[in-house]
Design a protein that fits this description.
Blueprint lengths: L14 H12 L5 H13 L1 H19 L5 H21 L1
Bound molecules: zinc ion (ZN).
The site of zinc ion (ZN) has 6 residues, from helix 1 and helix 3.
Amino acid sequence: MAQEEVKEVVPDITCQEVAQWASAYLEEHVGDERKRQIAVHLAICAGCETYVNHIATVRDMIRLLPRVEDIPSDIVGLRQAFIDRLNCRRS
Ligand SMILES: [Zn+2]
């Protein structure tokens, strides 16, 4: 039918570029053309597919966590409470 559209789908994007664009790709912050290039690359490159899936998993996990900045102080507080409790039991 539309034989003029013989725009070859050459994945002219390297693994390095996929790594650089992974976050933007997952957040849909990339243009349609770039998105297509990455999708094509992921389809033919198992290494990058694994990498992007890994990033997606980590991102989802981070999103599930309540404010990450609060965690260190919470851990300090919990540790202190734990130590206090130990001290109470001993005395
Ligand atoms: Zn690759």
